[in-house]
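Hi everyone,

Forwarding the result from last night's run.
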Amino acid sequence: MAIQARLYSENLTFPFINEDGGGETNLSQNMIENSCCLNDFYLFNLQQQYQQSQYPLENQVSYVDTGFNKPISICSSSVMMNIQKQNQEIEGFISLQNERLRLALQAQRKQQLLTILKSYESKSELLLRQKDEEIKRATKRRIELEEFLRRTDMERQKWQIAANETEAMVISLNNTIEQLSEKLIKTDVEDEGSCCHDDNGENNNMKKKKMMICRSCFNEESCVVMLPCRHLCACESCDVFLHSCPVCKMVKKASIQVSRFDNSSL
């Protein structure tokens, strides 16, 4: 608008008097020329306003008439410099804000990652503690089972040894019983074939009775063999109450009942 006012003032300063003093004669001609110039300037002004409303400021300067290019070009160059400077400042401000925003987003993302890592770390520590406790319980249970298996194996070995010993005792007792039965048979045969069997027979019978009598009650015949000493020294009734052998006083672990032998059966 300042440029337009300047142009308007320059167009209004037309001379009414010539330098030769013939101003009155050319007044009408100058007025006609000035009126034409005013009309042209008015039309130009309207066109300039229309162009200013349609195009940016950089394009407005190129439509000015060549007769007024010098002041407008100076003004436009200063305006362009200011615009460029402002654009540079705006671009610098935008780049600075972008950098700040990038750093802020990076810091926020880092903080979020740290928060997530802390939460996962706490959860992982809890899970690890639970797994450690489970491993400890499983290890303790495994040790208990190994100890139980070891004790069971020891018990099995003991029972195996006891079974072997018992089996050997049974075999030995069977042999002893067979030997005793053979001796009794021989003794009875000798007693029957002897001529003087009165006194000797009674003595032998007394000895046999003493050998076969129960060493606990001294009334019944012995029919129970004590283990592990293998003494035939108790009757069936006394065997229930005896905890040790009546002959050698060894602790009774088991007992075996044998059949009785008499003369009638032989």
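The CA atoms of residues 3 and 71 lie 8 Å apart.

Cheers,
N.
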